[in-house]
Write a structure and sequence with these properties.
The protein contains 16 helices and eight strands. It is an alpha/beta fold and about 400 residues long. Helix 8 packs across helix 9, helix 9 packs antiparallel against helix 16 and helix 14 runs parallel beside helix 15. The longest helix has 21 residues. The protein binds guanosine-5'-diphosphate and magnesium ion. The site of magnesium ion has 5 residues, from helix 10. It is an enzyme of class 3 (hydrolase). InterPro entries: AAA+_ATPase, P-loop_NTPase, Signal_recog_particl_SRP54_hlx, SR_rcpt_FtsY, SRP/SRP_N, SRP54_GTPase_dom, SRP54_N_sf. Keywords: Cell membrane, Cytoplasm, GTP-binding, Hydrolase, Membrane, Nucleotide-binding, Receptor.
Length: about 400
């Protein structure tokens, strides 16, 4: 099956989808959840404090925010349940829709540029390849990756005798996936083991989206039935602890905190002990994003790790570096700096929805050799999505893929 057909099958909702009764129920629940979230999202800090005061007055019984639970009876209607296969298809289409929406800006840019290029250069020649190279570099794809990609295309066109650029369209997408997946040692899966305490350390400079990502991750793990705890390790920046607390309250997970200005390693000490004692599955640790001084940062992260390892020798199981996609090449240089101070196991590329230069994903993968594990596709709780190349190219080329048909297969 051609790549486009495969992606189409995986991600594009079928025309006039037949809705299962459960699906309609799920939509209703999702809608309720969305309404709830948007209400929660509008709770300002001030309101939040008022809420806290009220909670404290009521004997300190802090109830977690009410959650949407898929109550058994909501599904138990006579008409039979969605099969696992149907559910997986439905889920895949939901994920496809998220990537399509989150990559809208990049897609407009990418597809527009590609279409222009193909109408300007109809025959496959060196001028076309040079223009293509320039276009990809403009999209932040990264020099080396662009060269690899166009070399492969030149070979392919020669071998298959392709003379019209239009027939290279699908191959370009295919090669992007191939180049992305070529290093099989880079695993996108999170190193999380069931039945154990797993520690995730979140690092990155200020403002890239660490705290927000922690909230979204906590939500994901909780939805999977795991118990989650957060550690407010950014004790440096004013308001950072409260910001994490707001996320903790919103998602309904405990936040271990100390006063502003205290030693982050001391917070981690408390957190990892509490997490172990309570049998928590996932402890996610926020950190301060100071990078003015590499040596300080190295010392601070080193100390945090030593404290964690006293309780859990394998910790941290993941060190996730958050990078802001809208900062382009700057994100790459941040990543290089962080690689020098600590072992980064994965990247969370945030704010991909905010850039038209989504090619940065390819540059990160190929220039840093660190897997992108999650991408931020918006500000909502479920806008953090596990990353893979197929989802990504679907998001980047959705219109092209949807418009394709079997006749487009060539070779
Ligand atoms: N549009 C968008 N905004 C994001 C995303 N991730 C984070 N943000 C925003 O980025 C800003 C900084 O995030 P924050 O978590 O405080 O960054 P930190 O300083 O690294 O902890 C906040 O306004 C977030 O809402 C994303 O994936 N998409
Ligand atoms: Mg923060």
């Amino acid at each position: 099956m051609s790549l486009f057909n495969k992606l189409k099958k995986a991600f594009v909702p079928k025309d006039e989808p037949v809705k299962f009764p459960e699906e309609i129920e799920l939509e209703k629940l999702e809608e309720r959840k969305r309404q709830q979230q948007s209400v929660q999202a509008h709770v300002t800090d001030e309101e939040h404090h008022v809420e806290q005061d009220i909670e404290q007055e009521t004997e300190g019984v802090i109830e977690p925010p009410e959650e949407v639970v898929f109550a058994q009876d909501e599904f138990d209607n006579d008409s039979g349940l969605m099969s696992l296969e149907e559910f997986e298809q439905w889920e895949s289409e939901q994920i496809g829709a998220k990537f399509k929406q989150g990559l809208e800006k990049s897609r407009e840019q990418f597809q527009g540029a590609l279409n222009n290029l193909m109408s300007q250069y109809r025959t496959v020649d060196e001028d076309f390849f040079e223009a293509l190279e320039e276009m990809l570099i403009q999209a932040d794809v990264g020099f080396q990756t662009v060269m690899d990609l166009t070399d492969e295309l030149r070979d392919y066109a020669r071998k298959e005798n392709i003379t019209e650029t239009i027939y290279l369209k699908e191959i370009i997408v295919e090669k992007i996936v191939e180049i992305y997946n070529q290093d099989e040692t880079l695993d996108e899966e999170m190193n999380i083991t069931a039945g154990e305490l797993n520690v995730i350390l979140m690092v990155g400079v200020n403002g890239v989206g660490k705290t927000t990502t922690i909230g979204k991750l906590a939500h994901r793990y909780k939805a999977q039935g795991k118990t989650v705890m957060l550690a407010a390790g950014d004790t440096f920046r004013a308001g950072a602890i409260d910001q994490l607390q707001v996320w903790g309250d919103r998602v309904g997970v405990e936040v271990v905190r100390q006063a502003e200005g205290s030693d982050p390693a001391a917070v981690m000490y408390d957190a990892v002990h509490a997490a172990k004692k309570q049998g928590v599955d996932v402890l996610i640790c926020d950190t301060a994003g100071r990078l003015q001084n590499k040596k300080n940062l190295m010392n601070e992260l080193g100390k945090i790790k030593r404290v964690l390892q006293k309780v859990i020798p394998e910790a941290p199981h993941e060190v996730l570096l958050a990078l802001d996609a809208t900062t382009g090449q700057n994100a790459l240089s941040q990543a290089k700096s962080f690689k020098e101070v600590t072992d980064v196991t994965g990247i969370v590329l945030t704010k991909l929805d905010g850039t038209a230069k989504g090619g940065i994903v390819l540059a990160i993968r190929n220039e840093l050799s660190i897997p992108v594990k999650y991408v931020g596709l918006g500000e909502k709780l479920d806008d953090l999505q596990p990353f893979n190349a197929e989802r990504y190219v679907y998001g980047l080329f959705a219109d092209m893929i949807e418009a394709s048909n079997d006749d487009m297969d060539k070779g």
